[in-house]
Every structure is written in C-alpha cells, then in structure tokens.
Design brief:
Rossmann fold, globular, single chain, Arc Repressor Mutant, subunit A, 2 domains, alpha/beta
Length: about 210
C-alpha cells in the first residue's frame, strides 16, 4: 500500500528532504504514525507499505535521505530478518524499528543488527514525537534498557552474512556474493554464533525470528 508524497507547506519541513517509509501491516497504526510524522514535519514525503517486499522495491542501494520505520512482524518477515534484508539491500538508508515487542533482548538485537532506533508501539505521543525528531536529526533513539549487557553492533560484513543465511544461502554462495573466501565466512559465522549464544544455523535463524 502506498500513499503519494504530501505537499510541503513550510520551508523548515522541506529543508529536511527526507522520505519516510512506514512499513507495518496494521493500517490504523500506520495512519496514526503518519499523522504524528506530519505534525512534526509537514513537508516530509511519506510512503506507506504493508509488506517488506513492497518496501524493498521502493528502495535502491544508494538511497540516503530515507528513514524507514519498520515493524518486526510482517506477513513476509518475522523478527530482525526484515531489518537485515533492508540493510543489505539499501545500506545507506536509516532503518528504525517500531514494535509492540520491546523487551531488552529484542531492542539489543535490533541495535546489534543495524537499527538506528527502536520505538515502542506502547509509547505515548510525547515520547514518539521526541523519538521521531531525534531520528530526523540523524540521532539514534533507543528505549531505556535495564540490561548491563549491551550487545556489540554487527559489522557491515556480519550483517550481510546474516542476510545470506536468512535467504538460505550456503557458505560458498555467501562467499561468492560478498567476494570473500569460504574460510572467512566460516570465521564470521563462528563469531555470530557466539554473539547470539547459538551453535547451529537453525538456532541462529530462530534467534533472528524471535
């Protein structure tokens, strides 16, 4: 689902020059989020999508002035797999998660997988507005965490390897796609297993979906 760009009634909003992609399969929540975005910056171009596939088609690898607000549970994607897929497809785009699942483990995993922010669907209007203003300004925004174990962010290579695993590619295929040796892929996978506390690819995929 897509709605066309909104008019730019004031210069300050137009100066931001951002596209905002709202990716959520709940129409009412998308509309409410779009209304909040419009209140903060009426000149932004807002697009709405209800599947990950549709959002990916709207992005190109070199898109930079883009903020994607992505739900973790979509008809064609579950968990951080969608985040990894978008980051691999459009690495320059800014992707923030908007989810009803906002426990510390989910937030830490999203941050480790390249999210620029994490917004809880349970947040009030004031908190949501503050989060969006920070993201529009290029600043990270994450809900407060009570955990002392902040997971280290993934490197770009690790993120692309995870995306390959999620797409069902074998080590040899991932190595060919990334221009690396198979031994290097195995080395990175060992580090990813350790980071996520798993021992097999199946467990890694389950951790990505959770």
């Amino acid at each position: 689902m897509h709605s066309g760009p909104e008019p730019a009634p004031d210069e300050s909003a137009a100066a931001i020059r951002l596209r905002v992609l709202l990716v959520d399969d709940h129409p009412l929540f998308r509309q409410a989020l779009a209304a909040t975005v419009m209140q903060i910056a009426p000149g932004l171009e807002i697009e709405q999508y209800d599947t990950l596939g549709a959002a990916r088609q709207a992005l190109s690898p070199d898109d930079r002035n883009v903020l994607v607000l992505l739900d973790l549970k979509l008809p064609d994607s579950q968990g951080v797999a969608g985040l990894l897929g978008l980051k691999a497809h459009a690495p320059a785009a800014t992707v923030a998660i908007v989810s009803a699942t906002d426990d510390a483990e989910t937030v830490l995993t999203a941050r480790a997988c390249g999210a620029a922010g994490f917004l809880s669907k349970a947040a009030g209007v004031e908190e949501l507005s503050a989060a969006l203003e920070s993201l529009f300004a290029g600043e990270a925004w994450f809900v407060s965490l009570d955990s002392d174990a902040a997971r280290e962010p993934l490197t770009p290579t690790q993120g692309r390897i995870l995306d390959g695993v999620q797409r069902g590619l074998m080590n040899k295929q991932i190595a060919y796609e990334l221009g690396l040796t198979e031994a290097t892929i195995k080395y990175h996978l060992t580090g990813l297993f350790r980071k996520f506390g798993v021992q097999t690819r199946a467990q890694l995929l389950a951790a990505m979906r959770d």
